[in-house]
Amino acid sequence: MIQFIPLFIIFKFPVWVQLGYIVICLWFAILGRNRIGGFWCFLFASVLLSPVVGFMMLLVAGKKKPPQALKD
Known about the structure:
mainly alpha, 4 helices
């Protein structure tokens, strides 16, 4: 079952394909840093599942709410 995870499948491709995969995953993680889940959630989802899943998560994730000031 674990051999079907895209991360393990991508290791069978040439190095330039592997680097492209990692760059795309990092790009989606950077785009997701201001969303619910943050950078690490999007990075792990993109790397382990696939960049397509990371992109779909990016589309449905809501933006983080800024912390509100305390009212006196």
